[in-house]
Amino acid sequence: MRKFLFVLMLIAGLARLATAQQVLAKPLEDPRRFIDTAVNYMNQERYAEADGYFMTALENINVLSADFCFYFGKNSYYLQSYSQSIDWLNKYLELKGSRGQHSKEVLEILEKAEEGFRNNRSSTAKVDVKTRFFYLNTINCDHNKVITCPVCKGDDVITTTDQLGEKYYRTCPYSHNGVLTCAEFNLLIQGKLKDKTKEK
Predict the structure, then answer these.
(1) Mean pLDDT for the chain?
(2) Which of 63, 91, 118, 149 could be a cystine partner for 175, CB 3.0 to 4.6 Å?
């Protein structure tokens, strides 16, 4: 009888342990956790490890945030992936402009990345154009699903405030009712999506 109770308790304990591990594993599926981990590694100057987490986040992300573009571009600079860094830092500026939280730092890093890119190009070494996302710069997504536009955050309207506090509203130049198709989203992050207001 004692053996039976012992085995029963052991099985119950293992079941709880398995459930706990599943619960602990699920939060890591949230792309924000990967981004936070990547930023922590980057701050510790462990850039290659940070890159792995950024790549995993990029595969799982639904909305491309300006902060992600900043951190990924900055980390790419430290990895001397200058082309990739330029690409993502420019994307940050497209999303936030010169008034974003990181805009000043982005401009400083961008200048260094452009210099590094020029120096690489002028050296005898061939520039690695096949850097991840420099030549592809796309994400895998279901072509039947729509993605919230990162420019207007799904509102289809971009609101800006001038120095006097006046708000100005304009139609998002990229989205249709605040969303993009997978193909449009990939063109947007490549900087190739055409302004729909200029097509008319």
Answers:
(1) 75
(2) 149
